[in-house]
Design goal:
The structure is a single chain. Helices cover 38% and strands 26% of the residues. The protein has 13 helices and 19 strands. The protein folds into three domains: 72 residues, ATP-grasp fold, A domain (Dna Ligase, domain 1), CATH 3.30.1490.20; 128 residues, 2-Layer Sandwich (D-amino Acid Aminotransferase, Chain A, domain 1), CATH 3.30.470.20; 152 residues, 3-Layer(aba) Sandwich (Rossmann fold). Strands 1, 8, 9, 10, 11, 12 and 13 form a seven-stranded antiparallel sheet that branches. A four-stranded antiparallel sheet has the order 2-7-3-4, covered by helices on one side. α8 runs antiparallel to α10. The chain has 384 residues and is of the alpha+beta class. Bound molecules: guanosine-5'-diphosphate (GDP) and manganese (II) ion. The site of guanosine-5'-diphosphate has 16 residues, from β3, β8 and β11.
Length: 384
Amino acid sequence: MKIHEYQAKDILRRYNIPVQAGLVATTPAEARTIAENFGKSVVVKAQVHAGGRGKAGGVKFSKTPEVAEQNAQNILGMNIKGSTVHKVLVTDAADIQKEFYLGIILDRASKTITVMGSSEGGVEIEEVAKVTPEKIIKVQADPFLGLSDYQARELAFGMGIDSAKVNGFVTITKELYRAYTENDAEILEINPLILTEQGAWLALDAKMVFEDNGMHVRHKASENLRDLGEEEPAEGEARKAGLSYVKLDGNIGCVVNGAGLAMATMDSLKLYGGEPANFLDIGGGAKSDKVAAAIRIILTDPNVKAILFNIFGGITRGDDVARGILAGLSEINTDVPIVIRLVGTNSEAGRKILEEANLKSAETLMEAAQEVVAVANERAKESK
Ligand code: GDP
Ligand code: MN
């Protein structure tokens, strides 16, 4: 789950990482009032989950409250990489001496939490990685010991930080690491982390992504940081229905029980020249309410030309699954063709129920995948 800069900065504040004072405005008049109260230059910043706001014109230095109001007027409603700006952060403007990059990610290749720093701050780190990869310094935190002082110092020296400023940097880096681990973050990034003209450290921007699997139990309170306006509506609906769903770009909807089977299903579609429209795991069994929710969610995507069910009956019996599918389908009105592959416990009884209801069923995944790819292609041709 991504959150906004202003929310991430609130978290950084709790870890004593220096950030500018700032307030959120939803109207130009509010932005003006905030700027008046600051009584000095401010920066008006679009609050959207997309990066590169500066380049897109979503970050504006504002010398007077009038200018802040005008900038907010221009930025609110702006579209940045597909997200509409509904809020701006009005912050106390800082004088920059030097911009750095400091970020923490979970590096799946090394299976560690990796802390990265660079003297090339303010620029997107992907860009730095492409052009001057030697300017990115990385250290890997020990899973048990965490990030050590010497590692933070190693970053500082690699980034060319003035020796007088190293201790301050070490403190910030260690606190950032604590914020990362305590919140089960996936990404926590300060870009740029600056030294002000006055020589103080300051986090000018903040990006934070929570690990979704840590949210339900460990970070329930963080759930209210979610901005539904920034998410794929179908993904929100799926979350409410207890389904894990990720929208993709293809035209074959997939309903599968089990994440591994869902991946294998998508691979099979690809193998036969199809393109999955989604990843969807309906979890154990296939109760009618979940089936109905799954179909409804899949059909919100106008690209979908056919749907493939791939259900493995383990503890759940195949005939129960078949009845669940029928009950689910009866709640939905659609002419999108459906192919069902059902195996496992009582699968024969299940397939019989499906056949009686005139639903296409297949025994093997290969068969089902080929069938649904053919049907989807035919439909795609017809609609051209
Ligand atoms: P991003 O483009 O979405 O990453 O947004 P940032 O918050 O990182 O802002 C982009 C750039 O605007 C920064 O790299 C700075 O150069 C500049 N900027 C942001 N805030 C301030 C500020 O308070 N003072 C000054 N002088 N520049 C700022
Ligand atoms: Mn930035």
